[in-house]
């Protein structure tokens, strides 16, 4: 079994892990009907519309 001969330095370890912690922000689009933020290419949870059509019946509060 392969075993490293020497310990990796802290700088080398952190250089390797440097891009692991970065998270992408979720893409958000504004719903043209109600103005709420929603995921692109998904039905709006607030008004239930997608691409100008009523897809989900949403109860009025």
TrEMBL record:
Coiled coil: none annotated. GO terms for cellular component: large ribosomal subunit. GO terms for biological process: translation. Signal peptide: none annotated. Keywords: Ribonucleoprotein, Ribosomal protein. InterPro entries: Ribosomal_bL32, Ribosomal_bL32_bact, Ribosomal_zn-bd. One of its GO terms (molecular function) is structural constituent of ribosome. The keyword Ribonucleoprotein applies. SUPFAM superfamilies: Zn-binding ribosomal proteins. Belongs to the bacterial ribosomal protein bL32 family. This is Large ribosomal subunit protein bL32.
